[in-house]
Amino acid sequence: MNLSVSSTTCNGNFREDLKINKTIKTKRGTYTIDKLLGEGGYGLVYLVTSKKDQQKYAMKIERVSKERTSPKLKVEVSILKKVSSIDRERSHFVKMYDRCKKKDYCLIVMDLLGPNIFDLKRKCRNLEFSESTSFNVGIQCLESIEDLHKFNFIHRDIKPTNFSVGTECKNNIVYLIDFGLARYILNGKGDIKTPREICKFKGTIRYASRATHKGLENGKKDDVEAWIYMFVEFLPSSHLPWRTLNRLEDVLLKKNMLRVEWPKLFNHSRYMKLQLLLDYIDTLSYAHPVDYNFIYSIINGVAEDNNIDLTSPLDWTIKK
């Protein structure tokens, strides 16, 4: 299970209050904490057991304090409520079963998930996905971003660790997780919010859009640009030229150079047409809608040209 949370450590006393075997009651149920699954800047994620049905769930808990006046979980609850209207058979989002606000913390109870995409790739032979898995996972990740955008939220931290697969029979489905940096982009009148003049850097340097580097407001296009960088990393024998760099200005320079040095990414010409993805996303402005069908057509076209079977089993589902 990997429900990602932010990178800063939570208050130690808060964690101490949530010990193993502790019982947490809500209006809808009673849960026993089994173990800690992950922790971060705004939350703790626990494996819990429901007293009602003895089922295992993930419980994300966020501390509430005077300093923390705008709970991140509030945004996550809003998103999970919105996306619950998507058909479960094609949804790339976990189901939320319960939520509750206590004096010192708020929580949500949701589906357990399997490993994240980053960890799955590390376990593959030569630390690489097969071509079919690279394309399949890339498409599923894009579908989840598109679905999130339909509800006018942007994620702002697209990266492999924020995508996980389901458990058991759903281990071939990719789920988008961790909405701690997500933002609703419409104002009270239903129009796109006026972009702020200066925005603090949010996200992950390796995958952040160029606009993010420049302190510009993020729109839907910026999630997709981050997805393009991530998709490049999925492809066999492919690495981002800035993978070892940490300075914002150095990484931005490399991202600018990528526009003219795309052919150097690969030792063959099989993926040359994927540069059309960058060419297209670079034409979009902050408020411009994204033509997802065009993006899918490019990906599917490259897959067809190279006889990549998008129906092949994902690498981690094949019994060895």
UniProtKB/TrEMBL annotation:
Pfam families: Pkinase. GO terms for molecular function: ATP binding; protein kinase activity. ATP binds at K60. Keywords: ATP-binding, Nucleotide-binding. Residues 31-320 form the Protein kinase domain. SUPFAM superfamilies: Protein kinase-like (PK-like). The keyword ATP-binding applies. This is Protein kinase domain-containing protein. It comes from Strongyloides papillosus (Intestinal threadworm).
